[in-house]
Specification:
Elements lengths: L12 E3 L17 E3 L10 H4 L1 E3 L19 H5 L3 H24 L7 E5 L3 E3 L5 E3 L5 E3 L4 E5 L1 H10 L4 H20 L1 H11 L4 H22 L8 H11 L2 H7 L14 H14 L13
Parallel strand pairs: 1-4, 4-8
Antiparallel strand pairs: 2-3, 2-7, 5-6, 7-8
Helix pairs in contact: 3-5, 4-8, 5-7, 5-8, 6-7, 7-10, 8-10
Amino acid sequence: MRLGPYDSSDIDVRSSGGGGMRRAGGIGCGTLVIALVGALVFGLDPMQTIGVIDSVQQQTAPVGNGTGQDMSEDEVCASSAYANEACAALASLNATWEATFERNGIPFERPVLDLYRDGRVTTRGCGSASSAAGPFYCPADKGIYIDTSFYDQLAQMSGTGGDFARLYVIAHEYGHHVQNLTGRAREVRAAQQRNPGAANRLQVAMELQADCYAGMWAGKNRERIERGDLEEGLAAASAIGDDTLQRGAGQRINPESFTHGTSRQRMAALRRGLESRDDSACEVFFEGS
C-alpha cells in the first residue's frame, strides 16, 4: 500500500520498552486491554493471551529514557523502517477516521501509537505487558501498543512479508479505538457483565467489527492499494483466526472459547469493510445482539 508523506505534527507517537516510557502521552485509568495476538509463535497457549486481558496491575509508567531527554515524534518514526511505516499508517488512519467522525457528528480524539521491540511495555492505563501479548489497544489511555518484532512473527505465520499485513494489524487496533470513542466498547462490556454466557460471542463481534473497520480504512484509500495487498491482508487475517491458532497449537477446535473469530470470519470481515468502504456496514456483527 502506497502510504503518502506525513507531517509528524499530525500524529501522537511515543516509544517504550525496557525501562519505561520515553515520551509523555495521554493518561487514563482502567484495567482493560483488548489484544490482537499471534501467541502461537511464542509457544504459548493462544487462548490464554488472545482477546481481553483484564487482570494486569495498575501502575503509572515512568517518563524519560534515562538520559533526561524525551524522543520527539520525528525521532521515534525514524527509528526503524517498521516505525516509519507505522507512523505513516497512523497519519492516514487519523485523517480517514477524523473525517468519518465529523460527518457523523461525533467528537474525535486521536489515539497515541506506542512502539517498542522485544521488551516489556508499561502502559498509562492498563498496567504492563510483555512482547508475548502482541499488539493491543488500551482504552484507558487511548493507546495503540505495538511490539514491532511481532511483524516478523506475523510474516512467518501468514507466509507473507508484505506491508499490508502489517498495516492490517495497526488498522485493526485503531478499530478498537473507534469502538472506544463511539461507546461500543462500553456497551459490550456492560452486556458481557449482564450475560456472562454471551461474553465470548460479543467479544468475537468486537474483533470482527475491528477487522471490518480496518478494511474500511483501506477501501477509503483504495487509490493507494497495490497489487497483492488484499491477498496479504487476507492471509494475515486467516493466520490469526481462533480455529487456526488452536489447530496449530495442537488443540481441539472449541468454538465456545473463540474470542476473535475463525479464519474465514476474519477474512470475510476484512473484505466486507474494504468492499463497502462504509463504517455502517460493520454494524452487521452486532445485529440481534
